[in-house]
Amino acid sequence: MIIINARVPGYQGLQQVRVDGEGKISAIAPMADMAQNAATLDVTGDWLSLAGVDLQINGALGLAFPDLTLGDSQKLQQICQFLGDQGIDGFLPTLVTTSIEKIQQSLAVIADFLTTASDQAGMAQILGVHLEGPFLHPQKRGAHPQEYLLPLNLENVKQVLGDYGKLVKVMTLAPELDETGEAISHLRSLGITVSLGHSQATAAEAEEAFALGASMVTHAFNAMPGLHHRQPGLLGAAITHPQVRCGVIADGQHVCPTMLQILLQASRYEAGLFLVSDALAPLGLGDGIYPWDQRKIEVKQGTARLADGTLAGTTLPLLVGVQNLVEWGLCEIESAIALATESPRHAIGLPGIGVGQPANLLRWHWHEDISKLSWQRLQFNG
């Protein structure tokens, strides 16, 4: 199969995308090199991308990942299928701050699931785990329960990871709590991506963490000091660092569109940012009141808050953020797509679209008459 007249992020002009009998991309080439006598699909100038990757998602279909038990394997399978239907190719189940016992329990369930679950076409894959805490600054903990926050030192890090260091892909921490630098260095030695967040760090403290190997920032603007012209802080240091990528939630609630535009332009779009959903357990369910650890959250129009009004997260899928950025006029279609498909992969060391990748592709179409961006899956299995 050859898909023709496609726009592909990172490629100039219209391309042909060749898919082999095993359902993998065998070539991406200009239309001028078009092969003859092959089955073709003409996408008439629409965009093609890999499916999305969500590096920060806290649950779905009513199940919060920090609450996993050994009986949740079937529910996890349903979530993977649901996320696949939402255009997601891979994700990091995110464990927010809770007890070490519950963290270990969730890690054990996910590890078991990865060895026993059946792999179905179109199902999102678990790429590892994101630990968001428990090494966060108390004053920037947001909705994270203070009673489970821990001092950031090597002993506590090892205790939290237990035997699951290879399963953890990303850890969010407040770098100013790592006074010796040992914790960040240890995490990097294990191949864990260190993301800075829920932090009061100064620009200098952030730069020290970047020098030790930290390379990400968790939900930019949220749970950290804002940009200030004399105190750039963690976010200012991250934006100006060429090797650091910031996650951002594009739901219009976590960051207002004006500040999103500033962040996009200052960070060079997909070169310095990637989209996350930060979706909570009610993802896939309707508005209402739902349990959240020992507390409750209220979901209204996709935004989740605690009873005191604290912003807890969203229940909007990742690709809604892509559509928002384009429909709000904040960036070009190519960049918006790359922010959810290419940049998250690069942030954790995975390749973007190219030869050898499974052709689990999304086709994006801009509806000029109603100024809307839509997508659909294209799958090619041998």
Automatic annotation (TrEMBL):
Which CDD domains does the entry mention?
NagA (cd00854)
The GO molecular function terms of this record are: metal ion binding; N-acetylglucosamine-6-phosphate deacetylase activity
InterPro entries on file: GlcNAc_6-P_deAcase (IPR003764), Metal_Hydrolase (IPR032466)
Positions of Zn(2+) binding: 132, 198, 219
Catalytic positions are 278 (proton donor/acceptor)
Q: How is the cofactor bound?
A: Binds 1 divalent metal cation per subunit.
Q: Any idea which positions bind substrate?
A: 143, 222-223, 230, 254, 311-313
Cofactor needs: a divalent metal cation
* Single biological process term from Gene Ontology: N-acetylglucosamine catabolic process
Q: What is its EC number?
A: 3.5.1.25
> Which of UniProt's keywords are assigned here?
Carbohydrate metabolism, Hydrolase, Metal-binding
Show the NCBIfam families listed in the entry. nagA
Record-stated family = Belongs to the metallo-dependent hydrolases superfamily. NagA family.
The entry's protein name is N-acetylglucosamine-6-phosphate deacetylase
Annotated source species: Coleofasciculus chthonoplastes PCC 7420
